[in-house]
Amino acid sequence: QVQLVESGGGLVQAGGSLRLSCAFSGRFFSTYTIGWFRQTPGKEREFVAGISWSGGNTYYTDTLKGRFTISRDNAKNTAYLQMNSLKPEDTAVYYCAAQSDGTIYTSTYRYYFWGQGTQVTVSS
Q1: CA–CA distance, 80 with 7 (Å, rounded to integer)
Q2: Which of 26, 88, 108, 124 is at 20 to 30 A from 75, Cα to Cα?
Q3: Alpha-carbon distance 92 to 89, whole Å?
Q4: Which residues neighbour 82 within 8 Å (Cβ) at sequence distance 6 or greater?
Q5: 40-77 pLDDT, tens per residue?
Q6: DSSP bridge pairs for 79
C-alpha cells in the first residue's frame, strides 16, 4: 500500500522560500512519477510540477517555471518542491501525488495516490 505524506508548509513572507517534502512509503518508489499540485478554496486542484521516476525529466506549469524546482531522492523515498520568490498568490494547500504510467501528467485523474496536503501561506 502506497502512502504519501507532505511536510514543510507554513507561513512565509513574500519573497521568501520554502521546501516541501513528499515522503513515500510502500514499494518501488523509484518506479513512480511524482506530481505536485495545489488548491485554493473554491478552485480546482492545479498542476504545479512533475518529475519522472529517474528524476531525469521534469515538467512545470509555465507560470511557475523558474521559481519552483522539483527533485527527488530515490534512496530516501522522498520528492521535494523547492519554492523561491514566493508570492501571496502561491498561497494554497500543496499536494503530492504518484502514478506509475511513466509519463508526467498534468491532470489529477491520472494519479493513483495522494497525500493529505500541506498548507503554504505567503503574506504580503
Answers
A1: 10
A2: 108
A3: 8
A4: 17, 19, 68, 69, 70, 71
A5: 999 999 999 999 999 999 999 999 989 999 999 999 99
A6: 22, 72
